Each structure stands twice: as C-alpha cells, then as structure tokens.
TrEMBL record:
UniProt keywords, alphabetically: DNA-binding, Phosphoprotein, Transcription, Transcription regulation
Matching PANTHER family: TRANSCRIPTIONAL REGULATORY PROTEIN NARL-RELATED, TWO-COMPONENT RESPONSE REGULATOR
Lineage: superkingdom: Bacteria
Keyword Ion transport among UniProt keywords: no
Residues bearing the modification 4-aspartylphosphate: 55
Organism of this sequence: Streptomyces monashensis
Keyword rRNA-binding listed: no
Domain HTH luxR-type residue range list: 151-216
InterPro entries hit by this protein: CheY-like_superfamily (IPR011006), NreC/VraR/RcsB-like_REC (IPR058245), Sig_transdc_resp-reg_C-effctor (IPR016032), Sig_transdc_resp-reg_receiver (IPR001789), Tscrpt_reg_LuxR_C (IPR000792), WalR-like (IPR039420)
Lineage: Bacteria, Bacillati, Actinomycetota, Actinomycetes, Kitasatosporales
Coiled-coil regions listed: none
Protein name (record): DNA-binding response regulator
Example GO molecular function: DNA binding
UniProt xrefs under SUPFAM superfamilies: C-terminal effector domain of the bipartite response regulators, CheY-like
Length: 223
C-alpha cells in the first residue's frame, strides 16, 4: 500500500514541485493539496492521508494550529504531520512539535531527504535530524531550563537505563545509533523507548525529546 500524502502550502509552485518529487516514488501517493490550515483540516477528514506535509506560515489558519487539530485528542484519522520550515521561522517549529508534529524538515532539503522523511514519519518514527535539532535547541537555550531545577516527579518512574535512552532520543539519535552507543540490540532500544513513552504519557519520540529539554534532564548544547 502506498503512503498517502497531503501537501499543505500556500505557494502553488512549491506544492507542484513537491508533488513531482513524491509521485516519482512508487510507494508514495499525493492524494490532495491545501493552501491553508482550514483547507488542510477539511482535506484530512475527506482524504484520510497517512502523512501531512505541513507549511507553517499560511493565511486563515497557520500550520501550528492545523497540526494541533490534526493530531489532537479529537483527531478523525491516523494522519501524522511533517513540518516544513526555514531557519528564520524556528520558533514556529518548536510550537509545532509541542502541538503534535512528528518532525520537521528544511524546505530546501534534497529530494531524497524529503522522501525518506515521509517514510520515517509514516512508519511511526520521529524525523529529528540531530544537526537541526541541536541548532534549534541551542538557539532557544535561554527559554529552556538550565538543568539545575528539580526534575519532574514523573521522571523518577524511569529506570537508569531508560533515562539514558531518553537523553539519547533528545539528542536526535536513531534506534540503531542508540543501540551502538549503549552496546545493546535495536529491539532492546525499542523496548526501552516504548517504556519511556508509556511511563511519561507521551505520544512519540518528538514529545520525548521536547520533554527531556523542558524538564531540564538535557541541556541545550550538551553532548
């Protein structure tokens, strides 16, 4: 079954370019387009896409609010949101991640990265490129905890190994990279990540990364 993709951007030429790239892939199918957040909500309900490629700044309803409604508790389908951004709009990306986006990608990313990002998000993983994640978090370091504050009580429900895994997830590492770092199997890492999400009441790895920074467990710029 092909991955069903909805394109949301207020620039028709960009949507056309994305459509040409995606329709060249046998496992991807563009099922619709929208020029703003309100249209995106209607299209999600009507077309039931697997992944929404979401611009941030749009008329009528921006991508952050649209993402919040698409992925929120009243969601009407399984759609996941992949946000498109440029670095001059980083603050919106942070808000989109908090709203429920499964990841973000630069608008000028190579075609192969765009295609791979959609596949990753459709599979239920998070698209958190480590270099982009660190630049975002470093830029907003002054708005995040210093690491000296008391950690939330919920964090104490994690085992030491689960805390290690959460820190590595926050750095943007994949399961394979975490497995190599901790000298364990990828299956073991997946199990630990699942326990972390369940214990902390989080939906996915993106929320886990945001939690790690907002709780002060991980400090921006730390390795």
């Amino acid at each position: 079954m092909a991955i069903r993709v909805l394109l949301v951007d207020d620039q028709p030429l960009l949507r056309t370019g994305f459509r040409m790239i995606l329709e060249a892939e046998q496992d991807l199918a563009v099922v619709g387009e929208a020029g703003d957040g309100l249209q995106a909500l209607d299209q999600v309900r009507a077309l039931q896409p697997d992944v929404v490629l979401m611009d941030i700044r749009m008329p009528r309803m921006d991508g952050v609010e649209a993402t919040r409604q698409i992925t929120g508790p009243d969601r009407s389908g399984p759609a996941k949101v992949l946000v498109l951004t440029t670095f001059d709009l980083d603050e919106y990306v942070v808000e989109a991640l908090r709203a429920g986006a499964s990841g973000f990608l630069l608008k000028d990313a190579p075609a192969n990265e765009l295609v791979q990002a959609i596949r990753v998000v459709a599979a239920g993983e998070a698209m958190l490129a480590p270099s982009i994640t660190r630049r975002l978090l470093d830029k907003y370091a002054t708005h995040l905890p210093s690491g000296e504050e008391p950690v939330p009580d919920t964090l104490h429900t994690l085992t030491d190994r689960e805390v290690e895994v959460l820190k590595l997830v926050a750095r943007g590492l994949s399961n394979a990279e975490i497995a190599a770092d901790l000298f364990v199997s990828e299956t073991t890492v997946k199990t630990h990540v699942g326990h972390v999400l369940t214990k902390l009441g989080l939906r996915d790895r993106v929320q886990a990364a945001v939690y790690a920074y907002e709780s002060g467990l991980v400090r921006p710029g730390a390795q």
